[in-house]
Amino acid sequence: VLESRPTEPGGPGVNHEMGKSANKWVVADGMTPFRHVGTAIIAGIGARTIIDIIEAGPRPKSLLLHTPDDPPVLRRYLASHGWHIDCERLAREGRRIAEVICASEGEERAEGLILDYGPRLLEQRDPLLIEHLDKLVARWQRIAHSTANRAIEAHEHALAQIGFLNQQLDKVTPRL
What we know:
Elements: E1 2-4, E2 14-15, E3 20-21, E4 23-25, E5 39-43, H1 47-56, E6 62-66, H2 71-80, E7 83-93, E8 96-105, H3 112-117, H4 119-124, H5 129-147, H6 152-172
């Protein structure tokens, strides 16, 4: 956790060249040692771990989040616990595309599959959106293929995801 505290000019932790406060590193279990948190940046860990961190400490004013494993779980949590998803962006992370979520206190009106796949992502037309949706369709197609004739419920769920994602692709794919 990185904590920034103002210090007196010339005091410990001061950048003497600019007279500004330096950052102090605090090793902690999430945000529990802090009385208040302005913006919490939590990235690169699982959705459930991020949720545990948010719940364990003081409620931040805003969040900047990235979970590689299950963004829909994180979005559903945010929406059901008084967070509004302000913006979402995609970022290339090797061969993967990472979803970054910014949230602040408020009511999130999106629900269902729109919420799962990112209401602001689908609205804002991120430059990586088409590639991202194509990758998600391919993933769900693999799941649909592997569950055909074996797990009917899982197969139908995968087909529903594919249908929704293809609808979203139709909305953002340029027409010739």
